[in-house]
Amino acid sequence: MPALPFDSYAYVQSIEIDGKENVITLRPVFQSNLFNSLDEGDHYAFQTTIGDKTFTFEAVVNDQWPNITLELENDDAAAIVKMLDQNEDNKISNREFKKGMKNAVVSYEEDIRLHQNHSLDSEVKLMLEAEDVVFEYDPIDNKTGELLFGQSIISVGADKQGNILSFICPQRSFNTSLQGYTLTLTGEVEVGQVGGAIDPITGEGNIYVDELKWLFWGNITTPNGGSHGITKDEAAFIPIRDSDNNSGLLTLASIEKSAHGSGNIENVFSSYFVSGQQGSTTQDNFLNTLMIEGVNLLYPGLATEGTAIQWNIDLQDPTPISGIDYEDIAHSLHMVH
After folding, report:
1. pLDDT, tens digit, 9 for 90 and up, residues 253-270
2. Dihedral sign for Cα atoms in the order 86, 92, 96, 99
3. Does residue 149 or residue 257 have the better pLDDT?
4. CB-based burial of residue 172 (10 Å sphere; 0-12 exposed, 13-18 middle, 19+ buried)?
5. Cα gap 205→200, rounded to integer Å
6. Of 62, 77, 80, nearest in space to 26 by CA
7. Which residues are 143's β-sheet partners?
8. How confident is the model at residue 4 (pLDDT cuts 50, 70, 90)?
9. pTM to 2 decimals?
10. If you compute the radius of gyration of the chain from its CA atoms, what whole number of angstroms results?
11. Contact (Cβ atoms closer than 8 angstroms) between residue 57 and residue 45
């Protein structure tokens, strides 16, 4: 690990994860002023190394001088348990902690500031619509496939400086029948939090997205003709994490300008790429399980735990837009629920 400035990191003193309160307690290094640069109660992005894996996580700061407590999101806490828990008893013993976190430090990722997606829609001044989106998936049983999306299926909202304020997510229909049930579904890759920036002149930058998940909802007709409407709030879901399944935070990094699928390179302003991995597909009721099975019937392996996924997203030129008009677009697609 390269040397870090004193004001950017602290040693890990302890980790306490019990399903109710998930915290990492940090002990400052000599001369560190990390605690003076972070505000209590605010969300920040941090990074640590566990074993040979770099882990990025988001946490709320709780200052308890001389130490500092970071309250982790549940999915990040679960990922840390998985990495440290060698005997798979869902607990971190003293031995496991000492082995996995020996001399571990946590550094503050200053450039990564996230906010709830769609919370700043009214402040959007520039919109970058997709020229094309190609979604590829590679299940563990090697049934590789892809989903192609057309123009404007994704829209990125930014301020005049290119700071990312909002991400309108891709949606598509999934219609099929199985076990006598007819499913008319909408699928969406939902983004919970966003951050980052795109240079409005060059198109280069990074888009940070957190709390990603597939959502599937719609109407199910039963074999006897009954009908069940599943709302977006009741949707079946599959969490999406980074490629190593270490973090919920993914980075859409700019790549050489290119066109994919049906895109026209003449319309492409900038191109981005991101990869990830799907989490558990286990659902808590029969109808949601049925929706997952229906999606897998249409696209074998797509809705499967452990499936590797990646997107190529090519964006058109940024265009001015009012916050009100951008909000109308987001609401028309039921992006806020």
Report:
1. 999 999 998 889 999 999
2. positive
3. 257
4. middle
5. 9
6. 62
7. none
8. very low
9. 0.80
10. 21
11. yes
